[in-house]
Amino acid sequence: MPEAVITDEMVESMKARAGVNLRIDHSVNNEEATRIAVTKFTGGIGDVNTLWTDAEQAQRSDYGAPVAPPSFVIGCFSGIQFGWPGLGAFHNATQAHFYKPVYWGDTITATCRYDGFTGPRPSKFAGQMVTDHFVNSYRNQHDELVAEINWQVVNFERGSAKSRSKEAGKDSSKPELVLPHPWQEDEIVAIERQVLAEKPRGTAPRFWEDVTVGETMQTLTKGPIGLTDEVAFIAGGGTPIPRLKAHAAALADYQAHPAWSFRDPVMGSSEPIYAVHYNKAAANAMGVAFQYDVGFQRQCWQTQLLTNWIGDNGWVADCSSEYRGFVYLSDVITLGGEVTGKEITSDGEHVVHLTTFATNQRGANVMPGTATVALPSAEGVSPVARRARKA
């Protein structure tokens, strides 16, 4: 992969692009919320909530019709490679806002605006880095804004990161990171038992009046994360950047956009930079020891944690996460959270505020987050009924 350092010319070039609506056709992954598209997306994020896949259940709910999970818009478009040629990049934070349901049959149009960057600033990991800021908007066929996602990407000097990664590996004062994680069979059996025991709340309402500050959420477990988990996310709508192609179709893209690809030193093939999530050589070239998850994939896990907890009558209004550290293939991630506050808003919505976490088997919180959800009240209509499309 090409390796560059941040220069004054590069900084001025990126300043001039702030506020621009970007061309995203090459990375739009889906436009229609068909039954199959929704089913593949929920399977790709590991969501077993039948509200999203059982048309009859959804019709009986306050949605009144078959519906997609709120994170489905991420499967339509998530992000793009943009600017800073020769630098490495990590998606490091997301703030998602959900306004209206996406129903089966809806057409979603996405846009992406570049809001500029912060930095450059020094980094212990990679010399210098800058943080890009983007805003994705998603509208349905009625031109209604259904969701908006703010997201940030850290760009770093890849060559410096690789050399520092090698030096860190020589530091005997730090515990050795063994990858893949050396699980024992009895540990895996216990983890899989936990995964299968975790169920969404479903049709039983969680009333706002019954929630108390300090209450903990049920857990959601992911892993041990394998190659097929990453492939399923990509195939189900993980919006690789750009869309994955093969043979001549891929080579034509890579010839036109050399920064999109690299030469695999083992296979000899041209591979997308996105392959860091399933190709070890790509991850190593990025200065990372092993393949790792997708930032927006982790965001989908947080959203699933929330929809599992609130039940079919609740609504995820906002959720935010920071992606701290890598989630490597073979890791196990346990998500959970706690109620930190509750209120009735000025427009009569009964909302609950939460903090969330995502902890790996090494005890690190790799995705601290916050969320605001609206819950049904015993005194009024549910937040879903407020937002449901009128016939």
UniProtKB/TrEMBL annotation:
<dbReference type="InterPro" id="IPR039569">
    <property type="entry name" value="FAS1-like_DH_region"/>
</dbReference>
<dbReference type="InterPro" id="IPR029069">
    <property type="entry name" value="HotDog_dom_sf"/>
</dbReference>
<protein>
    <submittedName>
        <fullName>MaoC family dehydratase N-terminal domain-containing protein</fullName>
    </submittedName>
</protein>
<feature type="domain" description="FAS1-like dehydratase">
    <location>
        <begin position="31"/>
        <end position="148"/>
    </location>
</feature>
<dbReference type="Pfam" id="PF13452">
    <property type="entry name" value="FAS1_DH_region"/>
</dbReference>
<dbReference type="InterPro" id="IPR052342">
    <property type="entry name" value="MCH/BMMD"/>
</dbReference>
